[in-house]
Amino acid sequence: MLGWRGVESVFLGAIICTCSTTVALRILNELGHMKERYTAIIMGAAIVEDLVAVTLVAILTGIGITGSVQPEGVLLRIGELLTFLVIIVLAGFFLVRPGINLVARFKNDELLLMIALGICFTVSLIAVKLEFSLALGAFIVGAVIAESGSADRIALFTQPIRDIFAPMFFVSIGMLLDPSVMFLHSGTIIIISLAVIFGKMAASAFGSFISGNDRETSFRVGAGMAQICEFALIIAALGNTLHVTSDYVYSIAVTVSVVSIFVNPYILRNTDFLFKAVERFVPQRITGIMAVYTRWIKNTARRRIAEPVRKLVRRSFITIAVNLALITTVFITVTVLSRYETKLPIQVPQYLGGTSAYLWLLGVLLTIPLYVANVRKWQAISMVAAEIHFPIDTGNSHNAIARTLSEKVIMFAGIAILAVYTLMLSSALLPSLHVLIIMLVVVGLITALLWKFQIKLYSRAQDLVIRTFAEPEAPLYVEPMTAMPYLFREAKLSSVEILRGSLSAGQTVRQLGIRSRTGATIIGIRRGEDMITNPPLEEVLIPGDKVLLLGLHGQIEAAIKLLSGR
């Protein structure tokens, strides 16, 4: 619509997608809204946008230099960012926080202020030198200092300094304006400014609402996010430096930043009036549906999740993260090998895809067990999430439909994200489309035919790692039994699977009361490749669990009937 080239449009999208943490903090503080709930949401979202913007800079650098995304550069940048955050947090908690508490004991306010400011400026300078956000470095070290016992004193001492430097920040932004560009491209500036103010406002409000906040809070969040500043200028300057955007793009970015910063305080001051005005135009039926959705989300959040379920989900996420790290390592290794493909002993002709394509296929085949494990873990997470949000209700058929639908959506989203991540990770090795399709068919057939073998292979490898790093257990002496007691001669072992829709799914062992109601005892639960022996009373049964029962014949039958009931 504006007649810009494709690369310029990509840079424009990156320019307007990040909110300024510094500006948001300053405006909210001036309005006295720092303790409001929506302020915490805005600051959290702004910090996440800063983290995303760091990755965007790496991606845009690759696009500007080569015209395509460079996965090695993006992964390296993400690794640098994570390393920086981990080092700052660890150093903060083990060095900065104890150091500040030690200085505070001297009761010297000047020394405490100098130490705190020195730490903040040092970490911020390191962040800038590493080409991260200055606000990101300051925020992280500020969060660490806030955990010390002197946070209130430091905040009181730094308030005058903050009041001195804040106006200088806005003055420096204003000095970047170019009046000639404002007149020549006034139409473009108006269109982009409206997109930033109303587009970001609507998108942020929508994101806040679907996460469970009420309409008014979501509207305030959208209002606070409707501005851009420092990262917009960094990205605009990057495009200018790489000579992939026109000179006026940077001036337009500066002008739009100033416009959004100027308008944003007025929007925030009048959010009550604006919210009521918007509510008048929204049909009452829509607001009613939105209110029901908000209540449902809040009721779901209040619902207590049993600790065993938390542990199951936490363990699944850790396993997925470890598997993704291993997958990333494999693909980085084959990507590095592809650089030396001319020196490899086996060469593949280009019409068959080239050596790089078969290195990609090798990487996929090596990681199939990891992908299978991740899919199964994600399936368990999606089932648990669906059961929590839509508990079994025999009198509500809509609940069952919603549970099944949400489970499938979560499952599909996880698989889609995994597929996109793999394609981005291995984009440097991907063959032509027809060769890629053939290879994907081969991989799909191997995965389907050897599904159970992949599960066993992963389980054995996992057990081997656990046994390798586990401490050796002391040998247990068991006194031999001379004769089997009568009770055990008559007892039987049996197992029953918890089916989807059964009344026992989602209940704890205590709630079922199998022992008191039938006389049988639950001695184990098989959950995927995990075995829970002597499960605690608060263990929650989920669909797919195989429950191992011990008891007499009649007791076993009664317990199976109870666990299988619908």
Can you tell me about this structure?
With 566 residues, the chain is mostly helical. The protein has 3 domains: 6-302, Up-down Bundle (Na+/H+ antiporter like fold); 307-469, no CATH class; 489-564, Regulator of K+ conductance, C-terminal domain (Alpha-Beta Plaits, 2-Layer Sandwich). It has 23 helices and 4 strands. It has helices at residues 6-15, 21-30, 37-66, 71-104, 109-129, 134-146, 151-174, 179-184, 186-210, 215-224, 230-241, 247-269, 271-281, 284-302, 307-338, 354-389, 397-425, 433-449, 451-469, 486-490, 509-512, 514-518, 553-564; strands at 492-497, 521-527, 530-533, 546-551. It has a 4-stranded antiparallel sheet with strand order 1-4-2-3. A hairpin with a 2-residue loop joins strand 2 and strand 3 (530-533). The radius of gyration is 30 Å and the shape is globular.
Task: Note the run of SSEs as H and E.
Answer: HHHHHHHHHHHHHHHHHHHHEHHEEEH
Sheet bearing the most strands, described? 4 strands, antiparallel
The helix/strand class is mainly alpha
Q: Using only CA atoms, what is the Rg?
A: 30 Å
